[in-house]
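Appendix B. Chain record.
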Amino acid sequence: MGSSKSVYNRDTDLLVIGECMVEFSCEDDVLESESYQKDIGGADIVVAATAARLGSRVQLVSSVARDPFHGFIRGGLAEQNIDISHVVTCQGYNGLYFTSSQSPEQREYLVHHPGTANRQIVPSLVYDEMIERCKIVYASSELQSVSKQTWSTIFKAFHFAHQNGIMVAYDPNIRLMRWSLEEARMGLCSVMGIVDVIFISSPEESMALLGYKHPFEVIGYLRDRGFGTVVVKMGAEGCMVGCEEGLRQFPQPPEDAAKFKNPVLVGSAFNGGFLHSIARGYDPFRAAEMANSVALYKGVKGGGIDSLPTAADLIQ
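Structure tokens predicted for this chain:
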């Protein structure tokens, strides 16, 4: 079935369905540190913020609890030029997490509590016209893992977008503190056949979910199961992309990879850079080059949302 709107008439580049959280980061051991930097955060929010800072028109579907962080989260999203007209307010509390950049080779990412606001992300928040107005719909298994309602919300958006020729993008982020490996595999299987672009990390994540470590094998496995563009992220080593145009690897220069000091949510920044580029009409290979630049910038600079690059930063 064709889309009811031409891609050139869609006024939203990227629609992200995801959970808002508050990030507390430090440079020391999380348990020993006496000071933290507070920011808005969460994997899906970093995807949205990255694309928005690069110039994409981004809309977010989410829920923010009316706790002490309510105004901080909504204000932070608006400052990033993210459209929050479909971010609802609810009772309960927002999720928090603590992270440290003390050991760049071993990410420290501790979820203190996921919050309850994410449970209010339900299928009724997503409707046909919203999807029809966007070029790309994105969500990850991080939201899938919350509840049957959030799982259904993602499936509803993905299925409608797929039926109407709108690009669907997905990241099977493994969050084993939130659900089991078997459930994570089920989450991935549930979107097979309706996802156009999948992001997956290698080797740990791909081995756990699929049983394959080598990016070439991962791409072959997922392409055979209906994923049109497979992007395998390899951290500071870059990425490999497989799609209809072929297969190419995009390594980070060793001298640049050595500068990585904070890997926290670099993969999400990569996703945002890739999808921004696709929305601008780039092919997957050129999008991968842009995404590598974004990931490098974030990994070298570290910090929170404001450490994500703008288009001007990448020109310098």
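Further analysis of this model is presented in Appendix C.
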